[in-house]
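Example 350.
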Amino acid sequence: MNRTTALTAAGLLLVALPLAACTSSKPAEPAQPAGGGATAAPTAPAASASSVAAPAKASKNYNLQFIQGVAGDEFYITMQCGMEAEAAKLGVSVKTQGAQKFDATLQKPILDSVVAGKPDAILIAPTDVTAMQAPLNAAAEGGTKIVLVDTTLEDPSIAVSAIASDNEGGGRAAFEAIKQLNPNGGKVMVMSVNPGISTTDLRAKGFEDAVKEDSTFQYLGVQYSKNEPAIAANLISSALQKDPDLVGVFAANLFSAEGTATGVRQAGKQEQVKIVSFDAGPNQVEALKEGTVQALVAQQPALIGQYGVDAAVTALEGGTPTPNVQTGFEIITRDNVDGEGAAAIYKSSC
Ligand code: T6T
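Predicted structure in complex with alpha-D-tagatopyranose:
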């Protein structure tokens, strides 16, 4: 995605759901924000900056290893594409692998085998803030540069840089979208992945905080799908039996969203239950076009990947990368999905 032409979440919401104003969050520490950051006011321009300085060419062909949160997830595939493009530009190599499930017990052995190969740098999306801490501490102590992409750790200081979306702001923006779709308020809930994932926990927090500021809405809490669409679908169907007047679901990631859409579709409640989800995978886009899902909070995974490579190479060349980089998000709706929102849709292959 072009850093300078990224759209603002607020702007897109205005286009799509015609509003007078829309609130979203600003990056908490926009030291050098990435393009497309959500803005506090519709008129504020998208922040654009080359946030991670990198040499035009690396002095040698460094061996970078990317460990995804999970294999086969279009979010991480798109991130991989961003990394590969940047690696080719800088003259370094990047190899990607990921476990079959979003699970620290499966990610740790992959990390162990990558560390054993003594790469120059590891770019990783840790699947649990606690469980991946010790293995990554050990990798950093062994001299490998660690870059956290997407998710983070309880103590991220072992990493030379941590690059992630404005997850809390995205959760708040999701509530704004649900509010516009349900101006009279009502019952809302979050479909998340697992507790202990930094990104989805922050998204749920942003959503919950925003709901609780609005007394016309009732927050039913968060449910965990384990990143399995079938589990999410079952949880939604039970939630609808318990609360048949549910009006909105915030699905905190791609697979939770796919299952949420299935559950609502199976219950025949597409008219009543508005779904706003994080991410913009092809199945989510299909659900958006068909009308089961009303808005997607698209992250900028390719940019996260690009910045990740830049940070790794900067550190390997003896420089100091920006420690925390926050990228933005864009809201895709049916109104812009075939227009300006199309560029934000995730890829299934590079
Ligand atoms: O939402 C992304 C990612 O940001 C999150 O950490 C885990 O789920 C995804 O990969 C989407 O499936």
